[in-house]
Amino acid sequence: METKPKIALFQCQWCLYSEPDQYWVDHNLPPSIRLMKVSCTGRINTLHILNAIQGGADGVMISGCRPEKCHFKEGNLSALRQHEEFLNLLDYIGYERDRVRFVWLDLQDRGRIQQELADFENKLQELSTANTLATRINAPEGEVHV
Amino acid sequence: MSHSGSSQSFADEVKAIPGGEFVELCFSCGTCVSKCMIQQKLEPEYNPRRLLRMVIMDMKEDAFDSPTTWLCSACDLCYPACPQQIHISGVITAVKEIAVEQGGKTTLKTAAVDQQTCVSCGLCAEACPYEAISLVQTKVPYRGLVQVAQVDPGKCMACGLCSAVCRSTSIGVPDDYTDKALMENLWDWLQPEGVTF
Amino acid sequence: MVDAARQPRIDVRTYTEVEKVEGFVGNFKVTLREKAKHVLADRCNGCGDCAKVCPVEVPNYFEMNLAPRKAAYVPMSQSVPLIYNIDLDACIHCYKCVEACGPLEAIDFSQEDKLVEEDIGAIIVATGFSHFDPSVMEEYGYSRYPNVITSMEMERLNNSAGPTAGNLIRPSDHKNPKRLAFINCVGSRDKRYNPSCSNFCCMYSIKNAVLLKQMNPDVDITIYYMDIRTPSKGYEEFYDRARELGIHFTQGRPSMITEDKETHNLFVHSEDITLGKVIEEEYDMVMLNQAAIPQPDQDHMSSVLNVAQSPGGWFMEYHPKLRPMDSPTDGIFFAGACQGPKDIPSSVAQGSAAASRASRILNSEKWEIEPTVAVVWPERCSATTRGRACGICAKACPYGAINIFSPEIPAEVVTAKCHGCGACVAECPEDAITQLHYTDAQILAQMRALLADKPEEKILAFRCHWCSYGGADLAGTSHFEYTANERGMRVMCSARMDTDFIYEAYRLGAGAVLYSGCHPQDCHYITGQLIGAKRAERLKKMFERMEMTDGRFRVEWISAAEGDKYARVLNEMQTVLDNMDKDELRAEIERLKPDMEKRLKKFPNVPGVSESMAYSDTLVSAINTQKKEPA
User: Fold this and answer.
1) Assigned domain for B53 exists
2) Which of A90, A134, C528, C574 has the highest local Cβ count within 10 Å?
3) C351 and C126 Cβ atoms separated by less than 8 Å
4) C194 touches C187 (CB < 8 A)
5) Given CB atoms, is A55 within the 8 Å cutoff of chain B?
6) Residue C258 contacts A, CB cutoff 8 Å
7) Neighbours of A (≥3 Cβ pairs closer than 8 A)?
C-alpha cells in the first residue's frame, strides 16, 4: 500500500475561493496535505519552498489570485517572477520542477482546488514510481537554521 | 451627521484630490461591496458603498472611524465592476489622505525594519507595491549614521512582499505570517528527523 | 396585425427594405428592395407542406435559437401575410419542397430581389429596438453557464407557443427550476455599456415573475434590482401585487454569478443593501434582464431617412416634450422604441399620434411651412460666376434642403424642406443666398437705426429667436434689471448671424456686441447652433488678433429659461464699457474701422443692401437733426 504524497499547500489569504471551497481547505484537508496561509503569494520566500522540500514534502502547491485580481496590486506577479526563477534553480540542482506547482484560482472556479490537488497528487505518484527522488537532501545532523 | 453650511464640504475636499472626483455619481448599487475580498475574508463591517455615502453625506468623523478607510488595499476588483465607473479605491485613498493629514492612524500592523541588520540594498523598496518604503540616512545605535529602509505607516498595507525579497531578514510584518510561524507550522507537520527548535 | 392586413387601404410589405428616400413632405420617392422569398406571394396558401418535407434544420431566430426551423419557413406561426420563405443560405437544393407544393407551383428558385419605387406622402418609422448581448459581461457568465438565460429566452420558454409549450425548464438538465433569480439593469444604467435606463425592464421582470408565480406557486422568485421604477398608472399596484404573491425583491446589484460544476446550480453574489450584508444565494436558473439598445442598422437608417440620432443612438425627435413623434424632417414621424426605449402603452400612444400627424399631411391639398425660407440668386452663385459650385451651403444645411446636382448648376433650395434657420445665408461666401423676411438689407436697416445715436454707448445684442430671445423676454417679464443701453436684434438662429453684421456693427461704432443663441443640445434647427458657434469662435480669435478690448465681443449661449443669465451677461458687458475711458473707446473704434471696412468691401454689392444703406442713412440723419432741433 503506497502512502499518499505529502503536499504543502501555500494559500494566499485573499485567494478568491468560494465559501464551500474555503471551508473544505480550512477544515477537511486530508492529513497528507498541509495548508499554510500567507498574506500574499508574493510573501512566499523561496526559502520556504526549499525548506518544505528539504523537510520531506513530496510537492509544493502555491495557489494565488488571478493576475489582475491580486489584493496587493502586483504581489502575485512578483511571486510568479520569483517562482519561475526558482524553477530554474530546481532544474539546476537536478530536482524535478513538476514537484512545485503554481496555480491561479478565481471565485468563479468553484471546486477547482480539489481538482487541482487531485491532479497534483497523481502527478506526484507518477514521479515517485519513476523513483527519481535520489536528489532528496537528507536533513543534516543537528540544528537546521530556520 | 451634519449638513454644515460651510463653504467646503467633506465631499468637496475629497473631490479636490485626484481619484476622488466622481464620488457623487454613486447611486449605491452595492456591486463594490459584494466584489470586495476584505469584506468576505477579514472584516464584515468593511463596506465601500457606505464609505462613499459617508463622504457624500458629509459624515467626516464616521468616515475616519470606518475600517473601510484603513483596510482598502487598492486591489481594484470593484473598479471594473462599478456601473458608474467610479474609481472607488481612489476615493478611499483620498479619504485616507485627509485622515492622515488630520492625525488619523492606520489600524493595520504595518511592516517594521530591523535597523541593526538592514544593509540598505533597496530590494524591499523596489518590491513594495505601495511605494511605502524609502531609504533614509538615520542614526542607529551601535552603527552610527547609516542608510536604512524606512516604512511609511500611512501607505503600508501589510502585504509582506518586502520580507519575501529581503536577503538579510531585516524587514517584515510582525505577528502576522512571520517566517517563524510559517516554518513551525511546516515542521510540525513534516517532523523531519534531527530538526529541533 | 391580421386586421391591418385585411384593411384594403393598408398595404403590408414584409421582407422589404428601404433603399433610398428622396423628395420632401408629401412628395417622397421611396425605393424599396423587395427581397426574394423564392415563393410566389399570390400562389402560396400557407399550408406548410414545403416546411414539412424540408430536410434542413437551422436555429430559429424567433425562438431565440432555442428551437430549430426548416430552410423553408415562416418567421412565426402568426406571420402576416402567411407566405413561406426559402432561406437560400441554408437550402441544399434538394427541391423536395417543389414536389410537395405540387400543382400550386408557388416555389420559384429563380426569383430575385426587386427594386420598387413608390410615391409616398408621409413616412412613419417604427423600426423598434434591439437587445444588449450580456455575454460581454464576463461576471454574469451568460453563454458560459447554461442556466443563465436572457429575458427574451425566458419569454420563449414561458410561452405556450414556444419551444417547450410553456413548460419552463432549465437548459442544463431540462428539469423545472424551483429557485429563480431575475437580475435587472444588465447592461443598462451602466456607464460601461449603456448609461441610460431601458425604461420598461422593471415592469417587465415583475410581469414575468407574476406570470411564473401564478402558473407554479411553489417556485421561489427573487428579483435583484437597483431601483424599481414603476411610474405609470397602475404600475405601482402591480408591483404591490407581486409582493403579495410572495416574490422576493432584493435591492443590490449582483457583482457576479458562480456555478457549481456538477449540478449547474448558480450562486448569485450581491450586497443586500437594506441589510448592509453580502449574500450568496443558490438558484436553479438566473434570468438577465438585458438593456434595450438601438437596432444595429439604426445608423444606416438614419442616413437613408436623413434624420438625426440622439446621443444614445436612437432617432432624434423634433422636440422632446412638445413634438416627440415628429422627426426634424417634415413628413417623417416616429412610433415606438426606435425613438427611445418605451413600453407598450407609450408605443401605442406614440404610434397613434404619429398616424394622426401623418394623416394631416395626406389629407391636405397644400402644406404650410414657415415663411422664412432661403432663396438663391442663381446669377451670384459661384457655379455661375466661376463655373464651380462651392457647396458650402449644402454642407451647412442641417436638413439637406440644398441640392447641388452638378458643379455648373447653381445651388437649389428645396423650399418644402427648408426650415429657415439661415445657416446657408450666413455661410455663403458669395452672398448668393438670402432668407425671406430676414434679408441682409432688412437686418442692416434695423442695425443702422439702433446705432444711429451715440453708438459707442450701445450694446448690440444678437439673439436667436428660440432661446436667447426668450431669455431676454423672461428677463423683461420677470423685471430683472439690466442695462438700458442694450439694443436687441432678432434672427432665427445663431447660424444666421453673419460675420458681415458684426463687422458692420463695429464699423458703425457699436460699443459692444453680444452673440447669443441656444445651448448646443437645445438648438431648434438640429445643428444650427454648432455652425453659429464655430463662426463665433472664428470671430473671437480674429478680434483678439486685432487687439480689441476683451469683453467688447461676447459669445453666450442662453436658454429661454435663463432670464437671469441674460441680465447678468448684459450688466457685465456694460461694466466693461463703463471701465473703459470714453476717448480710449472712441480711439479703438476709429482704429478698427478701416479693418472692418476692408472686410465689408463686397457687402454693398448684395442686392438691396446699398439701397437699404442709402435709405437708412437719410432716415438716420433725419432722426439726428430732429433730435438736435426740438420742436
Assistant:
1) yes
2) C528
3) yes
4) yes
5) yes
6) yes
7) B, C
CB contact under 8 A, C259 and A107: no
Q: Do residue C416 and residue C513 come from a single domain? A: no
CB contacts of A40 in chain B (<8 Å) are: 159-161
C419-477 pLDDT, tens digit per residue, is 999 999 999 999 999 999 999 999 999 999 899 888 999 999 999 999 999 999 999 99
Residues of A in contact with C259 (CB under 8 A): 108, 110
Choice between C516 and C400, residue whose per-residue pLDDT is larger? C516
List alpha helices for C186-250, DSSP H: 201-215, 235-244
Q: Do A111 and C259 touch (CB under 8 A)?
A: no
Domain assignment of residue C181, given as a range:
130-293
Q: Give rounded-to-5 percent helix, strand, coil for chain C.
A: 35, 20, 45
Secondary structure (DSSP) of C148-189: EEEHHHHHHHT-TTSTTTT----TTT-PPPSEEEEEEEESBS
CA-based nearest residue in chain B for residue A60: B186
Same domain, C481 and C498: yes
C280 in contact with A, Cβ within 8 Å: yes
- Contacts with A52 from chain B: Cβ below 8 Å: 186, 190
**ipTM passes above 0.90:** no
C-alpha cell at C298: 439604426
Q: What's the 3-state SS for C318-335?
A: CECCCECCECCCCCEEEC
Query: For B158-181, how does the pLDDT look when each residue is reduced to its tens digit (9 = 90+)?
Result: 888 898 888 888 998 887 778 888
Q: Above 60 in pLDDT, residue A37?
A: yes
Cα–Cα distances in angstroms (integers) from residue C147 to residues A35, C143, C156, C169, C288, in the given order? 34, 9, 15, 10, 11
Residues of chain B positioned with their CB less than 8 A from the CB of C189 = 83
Contacts of B74 in chain A (CB under 8 A): 73
Q: List the single residue in B130, B161, B187 with the smallest CB-CB distance to A55.
A: B187
Domain count within chain C: 5
| Cα dihedral C169/C172/C177/C179 (nearest 10) | -140
C2: left (phi over 0), alpha (psi -120 to 50) or beta: alpha
Q: What is the pLDDT of residues A48-74, one digit of tens each?
A: 888 888 787 888 999 988 888 888 888
CA distance linking residue C222 with residue C342, whole number of Å: 24
Q: Which domains does chain A have, with CATH numbers?
A: 7-135 (3.40.50)
Q: Please tell me the distance from the alpha carbon of residue A107 to that of residue A76, in angstroms, as a whole number.
A: 16
Evaluated on CA atoms C106, C108, C109, C115, the torsion sign reads negative
| Residue of C185, C190, C270 with shortest CB distance to B34 | C270
Residues from chain B contacting residue C192 (CB–CB below 8 Å):
83, 85
Q: Is the peptide bond before C55 cis (omega within 30 degrees of 0)?
A: no
The chain C residue lying nearest A106, using CA atoms, is: C258
Task: Decide which of B101, B135, B153 is a domain's last residue.
Answer: B101
**Quick check: C466 and C494 in contact, CB under 8 A?**
no
pLDDT digits (tens, 9 = 90+) for B50-74: 999 999 999 999 999 999 999 998 8
Whether residue C480 contacts residue C563, with contact meaning beta carbons closer than 8 Å, is answered with: yes
Enclosing domain of residue B37 = 10-101
Tell me: the pLDDT tens digits for B117-162? 999 999 999 999 999 999 999 999 999 999 999 999 888 888 888 9
Query: Nearest CA to CA, how far is C347 from chain A (Å)?
Result: 41
Contact C271 B31 (CB under 8 A): yes
In angstroms, the separation between the Cα of residue B39 and the nearest Cα of chain C is 8
Model confidence over C339-368: pLDDT tens digits? 999 999 999 999 999 999 999 999 998 888
Closest CA in chain C for residue A17? C258
Q: How far C391 CA sits from the closest chain B CA (Å)?
A: 43
C240 and C373 fall within a common domain: no
Q: Which residue has the cell 400550386?
A: C104
